[in-house]
Design the sequence.
């Protein structure tokens, strides 16, 4: 009796983790291996797979649109990350002070975070519109000209980056608030005694103290930038002149508009590798040990 | 209520400047099966949320409170999977769905999301903080492991269940890319997917009001949930750091 129960307990853990094991094999291990195999093949799903050696890789190196989508994503990150940190940190410092309606502000800032990206994008389309957009309406009413927020190739990606900043700022405000509350108050008291200005306190106390949060925001925004899909898909379709073609949108187009499965898998691998490299670089230069 | 203001303010500027009308809403119901997609979304998100809690609790318990060979290995696999960019698995997972014959089926929308690594780690963490004596006592009383998890320990895990529930429901409600890939049949489409296709497909171009009505309807359920559980939403998101 005792032995039987012991045996039963021994297989129980394996039964409990079996759903995970099954999931891992079907949706993680197999796809990663298969994806790697796919990068050496041409395949449109319908006809049989065709071995093509390193053709997909060669094609990628010479693919103007691959480099374009990479440049667009990096351009997005260059605008989005600093903007995100400045706004989120600014708002967090503001909310950390003694102000009224703190909770109300927090919940209003947080609202765009929980709403679907589709909704946010449709809303911002009405702001950015060329002829009927709210922003251009305001600009023309004070005597300025119209701006092609989404129709000018130089502005499409920055416009999307501003929208993404607005959508996510609430989440990062919360993260920064948690970070700010962990900074010991006596640091600021000591600085006050030494006569430090508010700016010096921000630069020499707050920012170093919340370095881990800043690093986390940078990483999350980077991953977010490389996951950018629905915003350009709905807003611009990747245009004008592919100026807002994001990395995931390009994979999507190759796979599900042209049915180039092998090439799309190659792009997936390349972008994953690039994300890894960018994060390693960010870790080296942004994360500081104090 | 206050949480509704920003949408209304921006909406107020462009929405129905001259007269307020519900024509746009009725036009939307006539144009696309939006009601059906609402039910689809509720069904898919609820099943995913329920399944994620169930499976994550089981796996989390096994990792925290039982000893077996390969336990650390499974733990590291979970960490590895969490850091794996989805760009790598997107294409092969689509092919798997095609080969399983799940295209245009609810299974394609549900099954791949039933295991959630983040939820497993959350449950593991909370099970670890439960005293071993409680589990031993239940075992001596002859409780099966499943009864220990779901009857004895669940009441003390409410905060974790709420956090995982909110995050899972919200992410699956807002998921667009995967449905776009595996579902082409309008009757199976989720709501964000249908609204997305409606707004890029050119069908809405002539009627801006209809497009905006669709967006409002899509945002409404999550916003209602948010107005009730605001605090939990913010806490959950802060604890995960995900978007």
Sequence:
């Amino acid at each position: 009796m005792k032995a039987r129960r012991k045996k039963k307990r021994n297989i129980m853990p394996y039964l409990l983790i079996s759903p995970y094991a099954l999931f891992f094999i079907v949706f993680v291990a197999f796809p990663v291996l298969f994806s790697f195999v796919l990068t050496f093949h041409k395949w449109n799903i319908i006809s049989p797979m065709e071995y093509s050696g390193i053709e997909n890789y060669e094609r990628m190196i010479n693919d103007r649109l691959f480099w374009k989508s990479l440049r667009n994503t990096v351009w997005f990150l260059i605008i989005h990350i600093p903007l995100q940190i400045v706004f989120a940190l600014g708002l967090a410092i503001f909310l950390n002070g003694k102000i009224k309606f703190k909770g109300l502000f927090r919940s209003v800032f947080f609202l765009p975070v929980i709403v679907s990206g589709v909704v946010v994008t449709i809303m911002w389309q009405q702001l950015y519109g060329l002829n009927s957009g709210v922003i251009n309406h305001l600009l023309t009413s004070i005597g300025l000209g119209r701006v092609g927020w989404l129709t000018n190739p130089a502005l499409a990606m920055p416009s999307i980056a501003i929208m993404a900043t607005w959508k996510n700022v609430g989440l990062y405000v919360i993260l920064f608030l948690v970070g700010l509350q962990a900074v010991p108050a006596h640091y600021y008291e000591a600085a006050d005694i030494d006569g430090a200005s508010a700016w010096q306190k921000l630069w020499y106390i707050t920012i170093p103290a919340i370095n881990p949060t800043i690093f986390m925001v940078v990483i999350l925004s980077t991953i977010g930038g490389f996951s950018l899909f629905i915003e350009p898909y709905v807003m611009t379709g990747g245009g004008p002149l592919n100026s807002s073609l994001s990395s995931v949108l390009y994979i999507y187009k190759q796979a599900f508009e042209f049915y180039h499965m092998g090439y799309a898998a190659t792009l997936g691998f390349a972008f994953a590798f690039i994300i890894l490299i960018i994060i390693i670089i960010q870790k080296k230069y942004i994360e500081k040990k104090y | 209520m206050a949480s509704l203001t920003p949408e209304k303010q921006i909406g107020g500027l462009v929405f129905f400047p001259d007269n307020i009308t519900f024509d746009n809403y009725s036009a939307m119901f006539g144009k696309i099966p939006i009601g059906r997609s609402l039910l689809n979304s509720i069904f898919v998100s609820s099943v995913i949320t329920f399944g994620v809690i169930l499976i994550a609790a089981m796996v989390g318990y096994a990792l925290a409170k039982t000893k077996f060979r390969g336990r650390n290995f499974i733990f590291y696999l979970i960490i590895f999977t969490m850091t794996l960019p989805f760009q790598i698995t997107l294409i092969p997972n689509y092919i798997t769905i095609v080969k399983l014959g799940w295209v245009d089926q609810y299974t394609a929308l549900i099954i791949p999301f039933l295991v959630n690594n983040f939820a497993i780690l959350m449950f593991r963490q909370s099970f670890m903080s439960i005293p071993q004596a409680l589990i031993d006592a239940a075992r001596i009383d002859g409780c099966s492991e499943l009864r220990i998890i779901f009857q004895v320990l669940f009441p003390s895990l409410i905060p974790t269940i709420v956090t995982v529930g909110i995050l899972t429901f919200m992410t699956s409600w807002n998921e667009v890319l995967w449905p776009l890939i595996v579902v082409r049949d309008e009757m199976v489409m989720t709501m964000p997917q249908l609204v997305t296709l409606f707004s890029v497909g050119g069908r809405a171009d002539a009627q801006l009001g209809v497009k905006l009505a669709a967006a409002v309807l899509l945002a409404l359920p999550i916003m209602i949930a948010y107005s009730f559980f605001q605090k939990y939403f913010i806490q959950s998101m802060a604890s995960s750091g995900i978007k």
About this structure: The first strand of chain A starts at residue 41 and ends at 42. Chain A has a mean pLDDT of 89.
